[in-house]
Write a structure and sequence with these properties.
alpha/beta, Nitrilase/N-carbamoyl-D-aminoacid amidohydrolase, single chain, about 40% helix, 2 domains, nucleotide-binding, NAD_synthase, about 550 residues, Rossmann fold, 6-stranded mixed sheet, glutaminase activity, NAD+ synthase activity
């Protein structure tokens, strides 16, 4: 290993890219490179995977003009950034094949291109749809060291890092677009630490940040030395340039050479992820504001708090739409939440509208008993009101359904499911309670009785969620096993759950796939979210059991 007296500085660029906006992403690259050099005197700045297109670009990768746009982007970077080295990701087509590439750029020249070897094709990833795998290992001399390059999934497999270390790399740069989930940060660190120790090579791991439709990228970039010690870590959910003293990582003898960013509590981490998702979905899609149906219940309360923290109270509107079953407590609590958060608040009673609906429908319902139809009409009236406000003002409707409800279909299609983005779509009800308590530690905005009283949709007299569903503590455990871990109904029963309850819950999950296909997207925060992650057929003859 080469010893070097001059301390080299590496800047980790956690930047929030907009998918498809190649010129705008280049602007961010140039600005970050200039900041890294002029403010921090960095020698190298490393950017995330597919920085130029954003991640995941999906079928934009099939556009005929993609290569031309990427070439223009690289030309601009080469012309503009000459006094600092870069590692940056982008798609690249050659000989009729498309590769997920990283380039090492120095002095206004591309010194090497690396083509990603391992293409993930599981969970939310489908890179084999677009890319061909690379085969070459890239290690090149830079400032007295041998620098190796790899991309994201390459560190999850053994061969790429082993080959790069064997080729003489003194350190390896691994660029990533690794989506957030609750356990992902520790998984990344543990995996990279293992690769570093096994191959006796330091690894610099840079990750993207920001929200892209369902996916949230949390940053949390870090570096480990050859002993597997985390020598540096950047914060999660914070865009910026973060500096690393490279020599300390390469020559460190097992000690921590910098104070790592503190690990966030799970509730804080999830809350930040939800805020990131709302902020970027609203802003990147250029919505002026958002509107929320505020019920006085815990789901809408947490949704309102997330929205305000994401885009500011001046861009958030809350509407309470009471009916004869709405309690006085709900009216009081909804108003208290709106005042505490400082949002625009209105009350629009729906009973006169409901009476008009029923007047028109009663002849068609003659001889039929009252059932959930009448409840659903209430929810659909509320959906119409919110969508009317959305159409008229340009506000995005944020829906409030949680993962427990979405799983078992405890939501009304074209009613409370009507909207553009579901903040809690991947958050189980038990976690919603925890998030409410957490948010109140920042400032008291959710009345305590909203958190402690039994949940109710208030669509019928004295209605409680547990009249129709198992207690959420039990329901969420069953759902986690079935939805996130693919444990069969009988497998769940074998873990000690009541068979009748399990079969009922599993059946509800299966038969409500059609609803979820028509539901708004929402931030993915678990290892298996509904949407692009968990894909089951609507029409299916699969029988419950094993």
């Amino acid at each position: 290993m080469v010893t070097r007296m001059t301390q080299l500085k590496v800047a980790f660029a956690q930047i929030d890219c907009l998918v498809g906006d190649i010129p705008g992403n280049v602007d961010k690259v140039i600005e970050a490179a200039e900041t890294a050099k002029t403010k921090y005197n960095a020698d190298l700045v490393i950017f995330p995977e597919l920085t130029l297109t954003g991640y995941p670009p999906e079928d934009l990768l099939l556009r005929a003009s993609l290569q031309v746009r990427v070439e223009k982007a690289l030309e601009r970077i080469l012309y503009t950034v000459k006094d600092i080295a870069l590692v940056i990701g982008f798609p690249w087509r050659e000989q009729g094949k498309l590769f997920n590439c990283a380039a090492f750029i120095d002095g206004g020249e591309i010194k090497a291109k690396y083509r990603k070897k391992c293409l993930p094709n599981y969970q939310v990833f489908d890179e084999k749809r677009y890319f061909e795998p690379g085969s070459d290992t890239v290690v090149l001399p830079w400032r007295g060291f041998n620098l190796g390059v790899s991309i994201c999934e390459d560190v999850w497999e053994e061969e790429p890092i082993a080959a790069t270390a064997a080729a003489g790399a003194d350190f390896i740069v691994n660029i990533n677009a690794s989506p957030y989930d609750i356990a992902k940060l520790q998984q990344r660190r543990t995996l990279v630490q293992s690769r570093a120790v096994t191959n006796s090579v330091p690894i610099l791991y840079v990750n993207m940040i920001g929200g892209q439709d369902e996916l949230i990228f949390d940053g949390g970039s870090f570096a480990v030395n050859r002993h597997g010690r985390v020598c540096f870590s950047a914060p999660q959910f914070e865009e910026g340039i973060f500096l690393l003293e490279l020599n300390d990582v390469i020559h460190g003898e097992g000690q921590e050479t910098a104070e790592p960013a503190p690990t966030m509590a799970v509730e804080a981490s999830i809350y930040k992820a939800l805020v990131t998702g709302v902020r970027d979905y609203v802003n990147k899609n250029r919505f002026k504001s958002v509107v929320i149906g505020l019920s006085g219940g815990i789901d809408s309360a947490v949704t309102l708090a997330v929205a305000v923290d994401a885009i500011g109270a001046d861009r958030v509107r809350a509407v309470m739409m009471p009916f004869r079953y709405t309690s006085q407590m709900s009216l009081e609590d909804a108003e208290a939440e709106a005042k505490a958060l400082g949002v625009q608040y209105e009350v629009v009673p729906i009973e006169p509208i409901y009476d008009q609906f029923m007047g028109a429908l009663n002849p068609l319902f003659a001889g039929l008993d009252r059932d959930t139809t009448e409840e659903n009409i209430q929810a659909r009236i509320r959906g119409v009101i919110l969508m009317g406000i959305s159409n008229k003002t340009g506000a995005l409707v944020l829906t409030t359904g949680n993962k427990s409800e979405m799983a078992v279909g405890y939501a009304t299609l074209y009613g409370d499911m009507a909207g553009g983005y579901d903040v809690l779509k991947d958050v189980f009800k038990t976690m919603v309670f925890r998030l409410a308590w957490y948010r109140n530690t920042l400032s008291p905005v959710i009345p305590e009785r909203v958190i402690t009283r039994p949940p109710s949709a208030e669509l019928a007299p004295d209605q409680k969620d547990e009249d129709s569903l198992p207690p959420y503590e039990i329901l969420d455990e069953i759902l986690s096993l079935y939805v996130e871990h693919d444990v069969s109904a009988d497998g769940i029963v074998a873990k000690g759950f009541d068979k009748e309850t399990v079969y009922r819950v599993v059946r509800l999950v299966d038969i409500n796939e059609y609803k979820r296909r028509q539901a708004p997207i929402g931030a993915r925060i678990t290892m298996r979210g509904f949407g692009r992650d968990r894909r089951y057929p609507i029409t299916s003859g699969w029988k419950l059991g094993e």
